[in-house]
Amino acid sequence: MTDVSSTKGRIGQGIAHDKLNALVEENEELEEGAVHMGSLQILNALHAKAVAKVPTGEGQASTGKGLLYVEAKLNGKPAQVMVDTGATHNFVTMEEAKRLGLKVVGGGRWLKSVNTNAKPLQGAARQVEMCLGLWRGLVDFSVAPMDEFKVVIGLDFLRQVNALVSPYSNAVHIMEK
After folding, report:
1. Is the distance from CB of 69 to CB of 83 less than 8 angstroms?
2. Are 113 and 104 in contact, with CB atoms under 8 Å apart?
């Protein structure tokens, strides 16, 4: 067992930590001013830039203060997707699901938002192909009535892809597993 506190630059134990420790030791040997990769690149992070404009619900666009939107492709079609770290699931409106050609199944479940009455979900769109930056995978969406947003990705997606959300830099970093 290695005493982390007494080993200069050591990160921890285990296979992943050993790889990082090797990189740290390698980094310590680099000459001053040498170029090296940051830790997110080492961990195979992908970066999706936020878009500067967001939908207002009327087909117009405006700068979104405090909201993070990313350009994505759902079912091969472009979509602006709001990243919501406060949403437990991923949501899409019925109108957007139709535009994207998603197969909606089921229903009978309910959605309860803060300070609102429970509303019935309109179904689910399962295994939707989604591209976000360089990341590509399958994502499940609940089809729900929403006033201002067409597509929302929440904690379900963020946990699925091991994402880091950075509001400061308007970015979503997707860590490959």
Report:
1. yes
2. no
What Rg do the C-alpha atoms of the chain give, in angstroms?
Answer: 20
> Where do the domains of the chain lie?
4-36, 45-175
Using an 8 Å Cβ cutoff, are 167 and 68 in contact? Answer: yes
Burial (0-12, 13-18, 19+ Cβ within 10 Å), 155: middle
- Say yes or no to pLDDT of 175 above 80: yes
Nearest to 140 by CA among 153, 121, 149: 153
Spatial contact of 104 and 124, defined as CB atoms under 8 Å apart: yes
Instruction: Give pTM, 2 decimals.
Output: 0.65
Neighbours of 33 (CB within 10 A): 5
Nearest to 158 by CA among 76, 64, 73, 48: 48
pLDDT tens-place string over residues 95-108: 999 999 999 998 77
Instruction: Find where tokens 């949403």 sit.
Output: 87
Q: Does domain 45-175 have CATH number 3.40.190.10?
A: no
